[in-house]
Amino acid sequence: MLASVSDAQTSDPPPVASLEQARASLQQLDGMAADCMAQDRDPESCNPFRIAINGDLLDAYLENCRVAREWRDRFVTEQVAAGDQRPATNDSQALLGYLVDIEYLCGENALVRATEFVVPAYRSLGRIDTAAGLEYRLDSWRQQQLQERERTRQKQAVSSQERRRQQQTTQQFERLELELIRQQTQPRYPR
Predict the structure, then answer these.
(1) Rounded distance, CA 42 to CA 7, Å?
(2) Domain coordinates of the chain in residue numbers?
(3) Is the pLDDT of residue 27 over 90?
(4) Is 12 helix (H, G, I), strand (E, B) or coil?
(5) Taking a C-beta distance cutoff of 8 angstroms, is the pair 49, 35 a contact?
(6) Would you place residue 95 in the very low, low, confident or very high pLDDT band (cuts 50, 70, 90)?
(7) pLDDT value at residue 24
(8) Residue 122: count of CB within 10 angstroms of its CB
(9) How much is the pTM?
């Protein structure tokens, strides 16, 4: 079940600003792509689109998506840790909406799903340098995501191992304490 935004177990609120900025970046990029496609193949008309996919606009989009995905990962981890102990609330629908928006705007093939003109404009450019640049950036972004997942998995493994070690230490301490109590309660016989 999804928890309330105000629930103490939810460490921070959804990244609404990051989602809106990611959406705005995609809309702006799609507008530039539409302008590029609408022109009569004038190479100059596509320059703003080329600059956007190789510059700050795409960087800002990727950064906003990183923030949103990190929130989603923390939220899901907290929900899994909490189990089904908390009932659904009215905020559950809003939280579900944020999760859906994050996947739609920042998930796999987001440029294909969330834009109309970006992919066709990109393909129509037919320029190897631009295509290679975008592919490199997207591949780099995917690689970063894989590395982030691996780091998270390793952190969880270390944390789990630390918890097991702590439990073992506590159990050993309790056994030792019981043994000491047993020895103290046994009568002593002179030899």
Answers:
(1) 55
(2) 16-126
(3) yes
(4) coil
(5) yes
(6) confident
(7) 94
(8) 23
(9) 0.57
